[in-house]
Specification:
heterodimer, A: 57 residues, mainly beta, Rubrerythrin, domain 2, 3-stranded antiparallel sheet, two-stranded antiparallel sheet, 6 strands, globular, B: 351 residues, alpha/beta, Aminopeptidase, Alpha-Beta Plaits, 2 domains, 6-stranded mixed sheet, elongated
Amino acid sequence: MNNNVLCPECEAEVSLDANVMQGEILVCPDCGVDLEVITTDPIAVEIAPMEEEDWGE
Amino acid sequence: MIKMKNISETLLGLVSNYSPSGQEKPAVQFLLQRMQALGFERTFQDKVGNAVGIIGQGPHQLMLLGHIDTVPGEIPIRIENGVLYARGSVDAKGPLAAFVDAVAAVGVRLGWQMIVIGAVGEETDSRGARYIVDQYRPDMVIIGEPSAWERITLGYKGCAHVKITARRSSHHSASGQQTACEAAAQIWQDVQAWTGEYNEKYNRRFEQAQTSLLKWSSGTNGFENRATLEIEARLPLALNPVDWFLVMKELAGTEEVQTMGFPIQAYRSEKNSPLVRSFLKAIRGAGGKPDFVVKTGTADMNIVAPVWQCPAVAYGPGDSSLDHTPQEHLSLEEYENAVTVLKKMLKNITD
């Protein structure tokens, strides 16, 4: 199985482990953006959810 | 009379039992009865008054830790246009009720014990969480706080309090000598200047220190004047309460500095955990678009997660900007969406 995907941010080729899991967060080695593995069959990644800041509990 | 239609009985029952910190007992009794009626196998009130419900058994343990106390200030309960107005609807009886409803709906899962706790005292000294931290060692913990149904809370800032007292001998004001009040005012200005300088290195509020002057008092016994400042700090991960306290001592010079309450270290959980993955999948599965959030407040996550050293997030329906406000309210659709996400997440994690 081909475990290489293109980073949706910079189009760098990102190589994933064979045992990658759905929901796993990876870092693109070229641009540093966080990527989320959306599906594993076929393997697809999206830019991971943004991290917001909020006040309160 | 509140219309019962389309509202969770757990949620309605919890908010109907007003329970500011220290007066949680009626809400705890309700929750225990409710969990029993929903099929929890063991329900009990622990030594410090927390409501505990347990379902299933096995080598794995999942803790869903909410809190059952609220800040004071009863809000008349009403439902208008699908929105519940009530004290605690957001912080944090909504999230706690969602835990109970979701766990009850999912039921027993092979190899897993699920524990729901409605902890007491979260809004004051976190005595409920401080007690349970030595009683359990779960594999994962979800803290019940309002994140909004599509978001996962990853961390909270820490907090610490100090009292600084300046003293000066009484003298005639025409003497030109510095007064205790002037000395205290100078210290507060120095605290603000230090905080501003510290924050120059950081753009995000989660990484910055925030100091507030909560109280100022002064007085005299005729021979000596004193002025006291009570300062609160919301602290980032990079600044632990002990280090901040040492800074306060340095800025206060020879004046008296006392710590107050329980200092709490900031905490941020790891994104790459089975717990976070299960939530991401569940939120997408419920038709949502997940986001992460870090909070500038402090929660029971700060107490238990560093000790348990296990995957931890906070989750629950509601808009946390309504915490502690007279306008506190929760959309019932938001509540149902959060229960749906929790049910999916519990199934994902226990499969």
